[in-house]
Specification:
With about 270 residues, the chain is of the alpha/beta class. The protein has helices spanning about 15-20, 60-65, 80-90, 105-115, 125-140, 165-170, 210-225, 235-250, and strands spanning about 5-10, 30-35, 50-55, 70-75, 95, 120, 145-155, 180-185, 190-195, 200-210, 230-235. The structure holds NADP nicotinamide-adenine-dinucleotide phosphate. The site of NADP nicotinamide-adenine-dinucleotide phosphate (NAP) has 25 residues, from helix 1.
């Protein structure tokens, strides 16, 4: 299988961790990393030959022309979108943006780019949290009568309620009052959705350990986005596509048991 050629914009705390993952994954050829500030001499990402370049010296059009890529991954800032948008559109480069703070206008522009190429915007890009959200949504649908509580824990100085916890509340259609925030020590990120049934309790828990988890999410998204038609996607939609494909496989495979006659329910007429 051919490697997906990737360019990464943003080389801060998140971008460096993402480069660690994409740079070491055989499915990808991380060709360059772009940052805003000038770079002295020849800088490469540690442990690789991947060059770290300044957008002042190498604007996007130059980067795309001189070292073509199939995908652009954005861990920089909301301002970058307009700087590369038309270049990405012209060349049909798939775009994976992890920017968390887009305005409605930015998002409308990103959606519009999706008419000409594959675009995914994911304000939360860890595979674990997105899986938790999909699983919680399913359980909520199966048991709308269960009480739902959301607990989030973060490092002592994080001032605001976690955006991820708000997103979970919104998705499950529960009031934001159901979120409990705890601040202590150096916790990177803990999210827990608790379903209180009358006779059982279900807890879905996600703990972030290292920023490399953003890279694992980006790798998952890129490999699946590569098989999609042009359009605008969310992480959740990619996961749902995967689940649908798995269900279809199970239905097609008689050995899976999915096609076996259902056991009697006791309600059949004799
Ligand atoms: N979706 C997710 O799950 C997720 C997770 C983590 C982070 N993020 C997002 O990723 C972004 C970066 O986060 P961070 O914590 O890594 O921030 P950071 O440490 O401040 O790093 C920002 C990086 O972006 C570059 N940059 C800033 N403005 C730019 C511009 N206009 N054009 C090109 N490059 C620019 C900076 O360049 P210099 O190095 O030259 O200063 C730096 O490399 C934020 O938008 C954040 O919301 C998303």
């Amino acid at each position: 299988m051919e490697k997906i050629r990737v360019g990464l914009v943003g080389y801060g705390r998140a971008g460096q961790a993402v480069a660690n993952i994409l740079g070491g994954d055989q499915r990808f050829d991380l060709r360059w990393i772009a940052r805003r500030t000038p770079v002295e001499g020849r800088l490469t990402h540690p442990g690789t030959e991947v060059p770290v370049l300044s957008l002042e010296q190498f604007p996007f059009a130059t980067l795309f022309d001189e070292t073509p890529v199939d995908a652009l991954v954005d861990f920089s800032s909301p301002q970058s979108l307009r700087a590369y948008g038309e270049e990405v559109r012209k060349r049909g480069i798939m775009l994976l943006s992890a920017i968390s703070a887009y305005t409605e206008d930015d998002l409308a522009y990103a959606r519009e780019l999706g008419q000409d190429t594959r675009v995914m915007c994911s304000p939360n890009i860890t595979l674990g949290i997105n899986f938790l959200i999909v699983a919680a949504k399913l359980l909520r649908r199966a048991a709308p009568f269960a009480d739902v509580q959301i607990v989030e824990q973060h490092f002592r100085d994080k001032p605001e309620i976690s955006g991820t916890a708000r997103k979970i509340a919104e998705t499950l259609e529960v009031d934001a009052d159901q979120i409990t925030s705890l601040r202590f020590g150096g916790i990177v990120g803990h999210h827990e959705v608790i379903f209180g049934f009358p006779h059982q309790t279900v807890r879905l828990i996600h703990d972030s350990i290292r920023r490399e988890a953003f890279g694992t999410g980006a790798a998952f998204a890129l490999s699946h986005l590569a098989n999609c038609d042009k359009g605008f996607y969310t992480f959740e939609e990619l996961l749902m596509r995967l689940m649908r494909a798995e269900l279809q496989l199970a239905t097609d495979d008689p050995a899976s048991g999915a096609n076996l006659p259902q056991p009697p329910t006791g309600r059949e007429t004799p």
